[in-house]
Amino acid sequence: MKEINISTKLLGLFGNPLSFTLSPLMHNTAFQQMGLNYLYIPFEVQEENFAATIKSLRYFNFVGGNVTSPFKTRIMEYLDEIDEKARIIGAVNTISLNNGVLKGFNTDGEGFVESLRYEKNVEPKGSRFIILGSGGAARAIIMTLAFQEADKIYIANRTFNKALELAEEVNKIRKCAEPVELNSTEIERYIQEVDVIINTTKVGMYPDVDKTPIEIKEIDKKMVACDIIYNPIHTKFLKSMMQQGCDIVTGVGMLVNQGAEAFKIWTGKIPPREQLYSLINNILVNK
Ligand code: ATR
To answer: Which of 28, 71, 121, 152 is deepest in the core (most CB within 10 A)?
Structure first.
């Protein structure tokens, strides 16, 4: 590891709990490979100490970091500037501290879109999507797809009203969203006309690996199925879509690319993406 010294630029990950995070390994590996004098440290912060923690960044060599659950919305109170897209998404996962200005960004949606582009050459512009879920992650992805001129976004959620509200908000940016019921029969009606289906619900995540948000019996077109869960890498949903002949994008794609987008904000450089994919895939496969 490069020597840590008084010039080392610090980055923090602020959240709670952080026991499963792969971000420190990912970023520190990239800094090392590129010979950059940066250090990324996880800080498991108690709710009552969050404000003081963020304030203290200004006293040290911090240049930014990431913010995760449960602080992605609350961080917005403590920022000097908020990127327009993060403001519309309503959550911040990346911060930068430059010349005393603490600015917030959201790289979750862009990270997802970048994984689709990088792995499958799919552009949001003109493409059609079904999103399962309407939580924070879904919102970041859906808004980003709308910013990038998706043709159609069907939003399916267990609580239909949340899908309805989200679709209404999206349609103010671009008229492309439509809420649908989250059940297999309903999804089967729409699936034949979309290019990409994305699971953003937590259904299928360890330890509930035998669960899937939907069971699709037949797909007669080539499409891409994505899951943002990366534990396990191949969820029941992805396995069944693969059996139907779909191309897949695992949750490693969004994990690596949201990190890569943040890395670019902090350093102005592109990290070694292929190596980061291998690093994360190896860890998760051998878990
Ligand atoms: P995140 O920030 O990871 O997106 P979240 O904001 O808590 O997490 O959102 C979780 C999403 O998973 C929601 O869309 C939720 O559906 P509801 O709005 O109906 O709660 C969905 N979800 C969670 N458990 C689910 C389950 N067992 N079946 C279907 N959807 C589920």
So the answer is: 71
* DSSP line for 250-278: -HHHHHHHHHHHHHHHHHSS---HHHHHH
The protein residue whose alpha carbon is closest to atom 29 in ligand 1 is 158
Q: Express each pLDDT in 187-215 by its tens digit.
A: 999 999 999 999 999 999 999 999 999 99
Position in ligand 1 atom list of the atom nearest CA 133: 14
Please tell me what DSSP assigns to residue 125. B
Is 72 among the residues known to form the active site? Answer: yes
3-state secondary structure of 165: helix
Tokens (6 digits) for 161: 């009203």
pLDDT digits (tens, 9 = 90+) for 53-96: 999 999 999 999 999 999 999 999 999 999 999 999 999 999 99
- Among residues 94, 171, 108, the alpha carbon closest in space to that of 140 is found at 108
For residue 102, the 8-state DSSP code is E
First to last CA, the chain: 25
- pTM for the model stands at 0.96
Return the bridge partners of 132, or none: 156, 199
Cα 71 to averaged position of ligand 1 atoms, centre (Å): 18
Ordered domains of the chain (ranges, CATH): 9-106+253-285 (3.40.50.10860), 109-249 (3.40.50.720)
